[in-house]
Amino acid sequence: MQTEHILITDPTEQATDIRRAACIIRTGGLVVFPTETVYGLGGDATNADASRRIYAAKGRPSDNPLIIHVASPQDAAMYADTDALYDRLAKAFMPGPLTVIMPRKPIIPLSTTGGLETVAVRCPSHPVAHALIAAAGVPIAAPSANLSGKPSPTCAAHVAQDMDGRVDMILDGGDCEIGLESTIVKLDRDGDGEFLTLLRPGHITLEDLERALGEEVELSKAILEKLPEGAVVRSPGMKYKHYAPATPVVLLEGTPEHVLSYLQERQKTERCAILCYDEEIPHLLPGGLLPVGARDDLATHAHTLFARLRESDSLHADVVYAHLPPREGLGLALYNRMIRAAAHTVRKV
Ligand code: AMP
Ligand code: MG
CA 133 to CA 123: how far, in whole Å? Predict the structure, then answer.
C-alpha cells in the first residue's frame, strides 16, 4: 500500500486535506493523525472491518481494545451509556488527555472493543485530531500508531518508521505536546453508587482526578505490579509487554549520588546508553547519553521518553540505564511506562 504523507500546520486553512483524510476514514481506510498525547492510528470505530485493519497494521492482538475518539464530550452518549460521573469528568478534563471506559452501545462493534461490553471514549484537544473527527462524522478508533511492542510515536518520523506502507495516509502535525498516552479511568457502579478506577496513569494524574471529584479514586493493581501469568486484568493492554526497545532496560533506584557513581563505574566497562538528567551530563562520558530533562522536570521527561527509547535502539548498546521515577503526580505515569520498558528490572544501587 502507498502511504500518503501530508504536513498539516493549520487544519482550517487545509480544510481540503482534512476532508480527504475524513473521506478515507468514512470509506474504511486508515489515517494516522496527531493528538496532544501520541500519534493515533485511526479508522471508523463503527466499522468492524476498519477495526480489523487497525489490528493488522499494528500487528496487535485483537483482544486488546481500541479507544474511540469523539469530536465533543457530549458525543460520547451516542456510543456509550454515560452518566453523571462522566459529565463531571467531561466538565473538568475534556477535551483533553482523559479516556473513560463505560458500557458500550451496540453501534460500536465488538471487534472495536476487543470483545468487551465496555468501550473506551476520549475527546482529544489537538486541533488536527478535532478537525478530522468532526469532518469524518463518525467516532475514530485509534490505538497508538506504533507497531505492537514498540514505543508510542510522538512525531511523524517515528510513525513513518513503523507505519509506512501499512496505512493510507499520515497527517504530520509535528511533535506531540504531552508525549505519554492518555490517562484511562473506568466507571463502575455498585450498591453505593458510581465509582472510578484509574487503569492507566497519564498527564491527568490520580491527584488531579481526586481533586476534581472530591473523592478517592482506586488505583488498579496492574499499574505498579507485575501481573502473574494468566491473571484476569481489567484493562487488557496491561497484560502485554509494552514500550519495549530491543536493548534491555534497567531502572536504577538509589540516592542521586549513588546512582551517578554507579553510572560512572558502568561507563568504564560497559557499552551503555543512559537516559540521564541534565544535571548528570557534566559528570558522565558523552557517548550514549540520552537526556530526558532536569531531574524535577517531569513534563519534559514525559515529552521526550518515547523518542529517547527509540533512539536507544539505534545506539546498539548492551544495556540502557534509566532512573526509577517517583510514584506521585506525573511520576506515576512515567513509572508505569518505564517499568514496562524495563520488563520490571529494577536494580538498587
Ligand atoms: P492504546 O490504544 O495503545 O493507547 O491502548 C489502549 C488501551 O486502553 C488498551 O490497551 C486497554 O488497556 C485500554 N482499553 C481500551 N478499551 C478498554 C475497555 N473497554 N476496557 C478496559 N480497557 C480498555
Ligand atoms: Mg499503545
Answer: 9
Q: What is the rounded CA–CA span in Å between residue 87 and residue 69? A: 16
Spacing, Cα 261 to ligand 2 middle (Å): 35
Q: Is the CB of 143 under 6 A from ligand 1?
A: yes
What residues form DSSP beta bridges with 98?
A: 183
pTM recorded for the entire structure = 0.95
CA dist., res. 284 & res. 305, Å (int): 20
Name all contacts of 204-210 with Cβ < 8 Å and 24+ positions apart.
204/93, 204/96, 204/97, 204/98, 205/329, 205/330, 205/332, 205/333, 206/332, 207/328, 207/329, 208/93, 209/89, 209/183, 209/185
Give the Å distance between the CA of 279 and the centre of ligand 1.
36
Positive/negative CA dihedral, 333, 284, 307, 226: negative
Instruction: Tell whether ligand 1 has an atom less than 6 A from the beta carbon of residue 153.
Output: no
CA of 185 relative to ligand 1 center, distance in Å: 10
Residue linked to cell 539505534: 314
Distance separating alpha carbons of residues 142 and 69, to the nearest angstrom = 7
Residue 317 Cβ contacting ligand 1 at under 6 Å: no
**What ligand is nearest to the CA atom of residue 200?**
1
Residues 116-152 pLDDT 10s: 999 999 999 999 999 999 999 999 999 999 998 889 9
Give CA–CA dist 311/194, Å, rounded. Answer: 43
